[in-house]
Structure formats: C-alpha cells, structure tokens
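Hi C.,

You asked whether I'd gotten around to modeling the 318-residue construct. I have! Everything is below, sequence then structure, no commentary in between.
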Amino acid sequence: MEQDTQKPFSLEFDDELERGYPVFDPLADMQGDEDDEDDGMSPQGQLAPSAQAGAIPRYAQPDEGRTAAQRIEDLFVAMAARRRVLLEVLRFLDEPRHAGLLTEKVDELQEIDLSVYTGYNFAVLLEEAGAVRKVNGDGSLFDEEAEQMPDIVEVDGLRFFKPTDGKQVFWVATEEGRAYLEADDPFGRLTEMLAEEPQYQPVYKGLLEYCDNGEGRTANDLAGLIDSDPLVQQPRRYSSYFSKRLEDCGALVWARKWQTTEVGRKGLELLLSCGLPPKPLGSGLTTGDGREPLNSGSDGQDKKLEPKGDEASDRGES
C-alpha cells in the first residue's frame, strides 16, 4: 500500500505538548495523488516521513480580487502561531538580503521555538501575499526567465564552459509589507482583547505576573494555577486558552517556558491601574480555591494569583 504523503511529519509535536495547545500548520494541506485518497490511512495522514515523501506545499490561494494588504492580513491571521517570526522576517528584509542569510535568520528565530517552516517557506508565503519580493543584490527586479550563462575559461588555448553558482536570490520587503509592519500594534491588540473579556482580567493579570519571574513557567505550572479557578468554570476555559490569547497579542512568548514580554508588562501596568472599562478589577470576582478576590486585601494591595501551601511546594516554589 502506497503511503499517504498528504500530511508532512511535524517537528512541532513535542513543542505543542509543552505549550499546552496545538500549533496551526498551513503547510499540512499538501498536494497529493488522487489515488492516495482512499488508501485506508487515517484522516491525520502518516505518522512518520516516508522515503517517497515529495509532495509540494500548496502556498497559493485564489486571488479573488483581494489586494496585497488583504492577502497579508489573511496570512497573519492564518499563521497566528508564527506571527512573531513573520514580523521579524519583514523587519529583517528592510533591505535586500540573500536567501541564505534569511534562512540563517529564521533558524535563529526558531532556535527555541521549533517549527516545520524554513526561511524559504516564509519567504514564499510572504511573496504570494505581496509582502516581500525577489530581487537581485542591487535591489533590481529578479528576472525568473533570464538565461543563466556559464563562464568561459581558456586553458592552453582551448576554451571551456565552466558551471556557475546560478542566479543568486535576494529578498526584500514590499511597500505593502512595510506598511503592515509599521501598523502592527501588539499593545493595542492586548488592550482590545482585555476590554472584550473583562470577566477574565484577573486571570490575565495573574498569568502576566506569574510568568514575569525571570525564568518563565511551564504549561503545567499555568494549568495548576488557572484550571481550578471558579472564574474559568462556566464557560469552561483552560490555561491554554489564556496563554494562547496572550501570545497572539505579544504579551507572552514561548522560550522553552512561558515568559512575559515588554508588551505584557505594559498590559500588567494597565491592569494594576484598573484603567480598563467596562468592569475594573476587584468587582467581586474570585480567584479560585478559597483565595481572596483581587484588590480585596486589608492593606488595599492586589493579591497575586499564586498557588499556596502544598501546591507551591510541589513545584519547588518558596
């Protein structure tokens, strides 16, 4: 039975478990042979790469008259889990960069945030969205159809063709890509998200405080802190929901553990000031397992959403 090559082997599996939620993979939608559709494999596809796995990722989406700005927005929505890397790629391509340098940059960005995507994958996705384009080293338009001529060398009066290294590809951000980068407002997204979910402001505040310890917190740490809290029972929410929302806003970053970013610290300052309408912190919302509500201490100080007693001891916290 021929193996199904419609799904690539994902290197993000372990990382997904540590994060506490699955990472969206648009490259999982691969072009395969029609004969493979009813071969008895599960809908999830193969569990390991096959020797003949050579399907080409389908990057292009129907244009449908969308502008480059719309396509770029759609790409960032579809690849929310890779938003940080996409933005850094656009920032890196503020001037023409060799494709090899882009590959090295993406490897550096994903050193502790593993992904199946390479620098080439990101470049092609951004190119088709209209955010970057191929150029020559001097910034002139790259000609895909230009014939690559070999060098001619002469030895003992005889002329020979010498193979060249081929056309060198450089990438640079387009005007539309630069505009998207300049308009990016992670703190604005964070404040908007917090205003949309005022009932969860104590939870977000607690997570940002908890992960701002200089070392970060594991997904299990976050689950132990949040999942039994009365605030998240109806409707049922888990810590992965909140960490993902904060990551999408740039307030948390995964670096082997969840860590609060500068954007997250700004959001924490805003929450501590109780400046977000329509419901400020300390309006009678509890913080779980008999702990006092936030802003309800006798000294008027905020109470952290921290585990107490045996729970803290189990994690090695003092």
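If it helps when you're writing up: Strands lie at 97-98, 132-135, 151-155, 158-162, 170-173, 252-254, 258-260.

Thanks,
B.
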